[in-house]
Amino acid sequence: MNSIKRSITDIIITRLNHEQVVALTGARQTGKTTLCELHLPERLDLPCTYISFDDPDERLRFQRSAVQILENITTPLVVLDEVQKIPQLFDPLKLVVDRERKKPAHERKRFVLTGSSQLLMMKNIRETLAGRVALCQMHPFSLFELTGGGQPPLLSRIWQDQAFAPADAGRLPLVSPGRLRTLRGVRDEQQQWGGYPPVWQRTGETERLNWLRDYRKTYLERDIADVGQVANIDTFALAQKLLCCRTANLFSISEVSRDLGVAVNTIKRYLELLTMSFQCVLLPPWHENVSKRLIKSPKLFFPDVGLNRAIVGELSTSSGAIYESWLCAELLKWKQLQPVEPELYFYRTAAGLEVDFLLAGERGIIPIEAKSSQRVTSADGRSVETFMAEHPDAAKVGLVVYPGDEVVELRRNVWGVPDWYLLGAL
């Protein structure tokens, strides 16, 4: 897996050119340690000191004399891994960073912090390193990374231009049959197994499923134990399973509370733990009135489809919900790589009009519908066209993303685009 370039690397390097501290968060096993310990020093061509606070001896050492240890490090790059395990680190680190600022720019040490729990890590960052740190998030492998990276994917060009260029429709027949088979094959594999790097290091179905189940078990026994405040792990595990079955649906806290037979505040706590440990995402609704975004029900997504399979087990989730969850994950991975990151919403009206995703930013709004069928028709673009008609100044182009093979203009400026063509690397 060392040959797979992580797209976030360029973002981290750019941030390190402007900030002394970069905090890289993300779920366990997404590749943070490998990136920061091996690939980042190589790309920066800088000597690096790597310290992991998974090691209890390191935690004890830093608890005794963190300032002295940090100041005695001579390498220009310092990676501090799993910093959420040592909250006492942040005040000494703030002191050292402030002292480093007084040095000439070329003599200052740069720090990369990693952590797999926003709940613990972000609280300390907000309290001690506010204004001194740039934040990045590491996701599992994207389709773009798995298919080779390189030039930005088609979605980047559509977002840049706020239009679907006829030339992009014409490029599809020029792709070689071998490359097409590779793109579709990787896409199919990712939509079945998700993007966690250790999954892609295993080839057998049993080995992959066992790793995902072990990952979930470790998450329950280790990550949840780290943050505490869960009285019954078995109830939490059941809540995780029931919520996962509701992926790509509106989130009703009262409904989940009733099904589980636990208090609403307990469900709120469980959901906070799941979101802050990067297991699920709450997608807000979009409204012209910004205040409405804060009070309407969000949409719940468990974005890694492979992990979903391990969590849900004998229960079932519709193919449409699984596909929509996969597309949500890919859009989240894509948007953080943009020069100015757009926001991601969904759209639903009381009258029943629904659009699965809206990419919204200063450039405009792109409505996106997810369809899991191999073919799309004009009817599949109706909601996208209606949204565009209601917001003609903001929405100039719409997309229906599906796993088929053809680029089709379904309605005026509403395009059916194969997922591998939109998000993969040609």
Taking pLDDT < 50 over at least 5 consecutive residues as the criterion, the unreliable ranges are none
Helical segment tally? 18
Largest sheet: 6 strands, mixed
Taking all Cα atoms into account, the compactness measure Rg is: 22 Å
* Shape call: globular
Give the termini distance in whole angstroms: 20 Å
Please state the structural category.
alpha/beta
Query: Percent range for helical residues?
Result: 40-55%
Number of strands: 14
User: Which strand order does the major sheet show?
Assistant: 9-10-11-12-14-13
Give the rounded overall mean pLDDT: 91
Indicate the multimeric state. Answer: single chain
Strand content: 15-25%
Fold and architecture overview:
With 426 residues, the chain is α/β, with parallel strands linked by helices. The protein contains 18 helices and 14 strands. A hairpin with a 2-residue loop joins β10 (354-361) and β11 (364-370). The model has no long low-confidence stretch (mean pLDDT 91).
Which properties best describe this structure?
alpha/beta; six-stranded mixed beta sheet; 426 residues; five-stranded parallel beta sheet; globular
